[in-house]
């Protein structure tokens, strides 16, 4: 039971972590001009293999927010595009500002309580650093946050690329940035390698439990097992062999090696994880980075507990099988 609960929590944290970083994050300390952003969108339409890429432009600023009753400090995330690519917020009421929708914002529950003393905030007026917004949504967060819609000509510091496509993501994004003339002033953050490693660690308990079950079943087969059970196991293995190639084809080609025996591919995985972690720590942290680090910590703790419980279960099964033999 403890193994199942810990494993479920670890998988939940893994899902939250993947929601924070859709694919490739482009960070800059200098705002990118509206003309450069338009050039980037034009390059997206022309670049082969990038047509399925979708950009979301955003910036983050610390400032003060003022309602009719109270004033408080707030982290304002200004964006143009899909909100969930910018910050993985869980909506409670209303909606998030649509792409290029000026003058609307969604606020966190923490900000709502500080500014209005209530979560009944839809339709309220909010001033953030001199700009007026109408609250259209409420999302859950213990931090004082506001997600504010802006038009593309506002100018943004960061870009999130998301979507599915066949081309390698980092190389494709680099080509797009060069075409738009902004490749020199930005940092590319591709967290996929270390998130994949953490997810694999979180999934280890399931593998350990299956291995323990297989050992138990193997012991029963050696001692004599009903034919129905044997046919069931063989049928399950045959079905898995049929389904596995189809499941592997669902993965983007840039994830899988050209040949599974390509040792240079597997040898490059660990350096890729290290580079992604190093880049992540070198970034000036924003709200989504802080949230991702908390999710990473929760995942590591829950996955470690689940792995320990699964290992203990596997050891007890092995001892029981040895005793029966």
Automatic annotation (TrEMBL):
Keywords, comma-separated and alphabetical: Membrane, Transmembrane, Transmembrane helix
Transmembrane segments: 194-217, 229-251, 297-315
Name of this protein: ABC transporter permease
Lineage, broadest ranks: Bacteria, Bacillati, Bacillota, Clostridia, Eubacteriales
């Amino acid at each position: 039971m403890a193994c199942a609960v810990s494993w479920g929590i670890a998988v939940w944290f893994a899902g939250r972590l993947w929601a924070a970083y859709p694919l490739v994050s482009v960070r800059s300390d200098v705002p990118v001009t509206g003309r450069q952003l338009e050039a980037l969108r034009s390059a997206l339409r022309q670049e082969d293999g990038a047509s399925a890429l979708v950009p979301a432009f955003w910036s983050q600023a610390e400032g003060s927010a003022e309602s009719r009753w109270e004033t408080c400090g707030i982290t304002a995330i200004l964006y143009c595009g899909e909100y969930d690519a910018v910050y993985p917020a869980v909506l409670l009421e209303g909606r998030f500002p649509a792409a290029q929708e000026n003058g609307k914002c969604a606020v966190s529950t923490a900000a709502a309580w500080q500014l209005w003393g209530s979560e009944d905030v839809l339709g309220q007026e909010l001033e953030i650093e001199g700009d007026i917004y109408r609250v259209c949504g409420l999302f859950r967060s213990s931090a004082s946050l506001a997600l504010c819609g802006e038009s593309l000509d506002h100018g943004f510091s960061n870009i999130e690329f998301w979507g599915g496509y066949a081309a390698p993501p980092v190389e494709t994004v680099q080509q797009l940035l060069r075409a738009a003339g902004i490749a020199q002033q930005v940092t590319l953050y591709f967290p996929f390698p270390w998130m994949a490693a953490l997810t694999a660690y979180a999934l280890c308990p399931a593998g350990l439990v299956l291995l323990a079950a297989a050992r138990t079943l193997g012991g029963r087969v050696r001692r004599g097992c009903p034919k129905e059970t044997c046919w069931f196991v063989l049928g399950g293995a045959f079905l898995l062999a049929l389904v596995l190639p189809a499941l592997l084809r669902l993965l983007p080609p840039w994830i899988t090696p050209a040949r599974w025996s390509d040792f240079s591919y597997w040898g490059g995985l660990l350096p890729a994880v290290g580079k992604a972690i190093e880049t992540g720590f070198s970034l000036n942290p924003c709200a989504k980075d802080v949230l991702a680090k908390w999710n990473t910590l929760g995942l590591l703790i829950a996955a470690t507990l689940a792995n320990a419980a699964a290992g203990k279960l596997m050891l007890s099964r092995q001892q029981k099988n040895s005793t029966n033999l």
